[in-house]
Amino acid sequence: MRAKPTLLLRVGGFAVNSQQVNLSPEANLLQFSHDPEAGTLYAYFIELEAGQAIYTLEYPASLLLDGDGQIVGLRLDLDDGVTLDQLELALDDEFGRLDMETGFLSILIPGGVAARTVALEQTAILDLDADERILGLELALPADMLTPTRLARLSSAMVSLDDAPHADEGPVVFVPEPEQDAEGAETGGAETRGAETRAETRPQPPARPALRSGFVALVGKPNVGKSTLLNALLGQKVTIVSPRAQTTRVPVRGILSRPDAQVVFIDTPGIHKPSHKMGQFMVDLAERSLPGADVICFMVDISQPPSQLDRQIAEQVQRARGHRLLLLNKVDVPPRRGATYMEEYRDLGRWEMELAISARRGQGLAGLLDEIVARLPQGHALYPTDQVTDQTEQQLAGELVREKVLYFIQQEVPHAVAVEVDEWEQKDAAVYIRMTVNVEKSSQKGILIGAGGAMLKRIGSAARHDIEHMLGQQVFLELWVKVRENWRDDLSAMGWLGYRAKDWS
After folding, report:
1. CA–CA distance, 482 with 120 (Å, rounded to integer)
2. Whole-model pTM over 0.85
């Protein structure tokens, strides 16, 4: 077996020669599939399994056309953020070529010759597995590139989309197209046909109601009510809320199961202009939730006019492949000077439906849920039906402590706080918990503790009450405050505190 390369790919001059770009020892392949309704073309380099793809990247892409204008491949414009290890499945001498000087990765069907290149407006979405290998990619194509004539050269490698939903946020699984005879009828071996004939004579069980399941991303700028909506839809608290913006730091999955559907909501951090590395981390995680979502709910505050940030987020949502719903939240809040902003929000993009709701009062949520379920693919449950969130009890308890800090402290402290769970021990009928509340400055530590420890006691008492409600048993909570200077701009400290992108993909 050849050794895998570990050198970074760097555009504009590699410190390696072409012999160091080794081919993958695995049996790679090149398959395509297209979704006419979504206007997308998929290309994959390995047989896929459900849930195999768990990360995504985005890069500029182009189509490669032959002399007759037919698609024979594609090109990715990569940078030094991609390693050769990640490209091992795509670097195959049958179809994959990497230009070491420019960073262009060309994928060509066997025998294909590119005569010209057509740049695509939208970036390609690259699917990666747990080892961060690139499994394949998705391209959004203009309508004139999705015609049978344009796709004719890809027919030998074309497969159909499987109707079964995937078990995670990765791509759908591909199955081969059924073979057809000259008259267009499906064919198969004698053994297969015989099995089908025998099956027809057996009594068939009654058909079960089709279950719909999938992922729904809740996106929007900070403080529009995403976490409040998630808690209201689930009927219980799975993510913290506060009047402050940027309360949610990492995507939280809330799972709603009912007889006809399982909806996996993803409450994302508010998309904003970051001022430190922690803020950039939050925005990156929010934006990563878009490519894999079946339905995207763009949530806005209808009592306020659209901001420039609303417009930027709307543009990102329009580039996603999922169904797009516009949620006009806070209809119970009188708009300023009696104005109405519905048309302004509607004009931010093309929406399948606009729904006016009040997450705080529960108005319009039943109709919203029905519209979401109607747009989910049919399949099986993605999580156990009694599971409500992907967060552990320890994670939720730490977030409840941070929530109380956000409520009780009005100075610069709240967003500088990170909570660590140091000990969690079950003793008889009670849980003993010790946590460290990290801040960035000594002055913040003094504010958090308060005169004679009064503020810390107030935070701890309120948090303990909520943790006991969550666990259904008595809790002994011990809080300590520690200064970890400028942790929000220190990637090492962020990782230590649990804020690593790999853990929240």
Report:
1. 50
2. no
